[in-house]
Amino acid sequence: MISVVFFILIFLALKNAIKFVPQNRAWIIERFGKYQSTKEAGLNFIIPFIDSIAADRSLKEQAQDVPSQSVITKDNISLAVDGVLYFRVLDPYKATYGVDDYNFAVTQLAKTTMRSELGKMDLDRTFEERNQLNASIVSSINQAAEPWGIQVLRYEIKDIVPPNSIMESMEAQMKAERVVKRAQILESEGDRQAAINVAEGQKQSKVLAAEADKEEQVLKAQGEAKAILSVAEARAEALKLVGHTANTTPGQKAIQLDLASKAIDAKKAIAKESSIVLLPESSTDTTGIVASAMTIINSLNNRKT
Q: How far apart are CA 16 and CA 95, in angstroms?
């Protein structure tokens, strides 16, 4: 009987002495109510009936919901904001003895930090700079939670809900911006089409002007050709008339008179241009010129006969 009791006591002692700590967990061991050691994952030994497990801390990343709360921005706009906090325990000793309930403490710290950071921003910036706001909240919480052995990995704002009046004014502003943008687009399209029309008009005007200039030059050339042809025909008719007249006795006398007049005029012109005038030896020089011309005419008439 005594041996059975002895074996039972040995079994209970071994059972209480051998501890298997799960992965990603840490056990805080106290001896006589005082911190003794931190047992990590794997096989561990404690003194039975003397050492006790004071706390079981998870080393995994934990997600903590931050309830919605009212926040006032820098421009005195009230917002309803909620989020999600992601953290983990880095030091099980500090998480056990540094704070009573680190989940509650971190949640409250996130809420106060979020109110503080949003109070530094205007309403428009809270929507535009959400990533920067999340980073600022994480940095502030880590500084305050360091004595608790807690590391905040990230903070995400889920919803930012402004009052109904602000929502209505924002929607009206967005509609007005869309209308203005659409009007600007239509105006730019109109300007573009007008510029295209002006360019097409200038192009057609230049083409028509070039064609008109070409036709004008063609008509001018045709007119000059006709004028030259008319002058040539008139000269031909005049020469033909002179030839018929030269066959008659009055016509020959008229030719003699014309030649004599031209010879006299030529000598007058020479006398005007030069201070020295050479006179022919015979006074019948003009008569000789006329006689030579008449001889040529008579010879031509005889060939025709």
A: 25
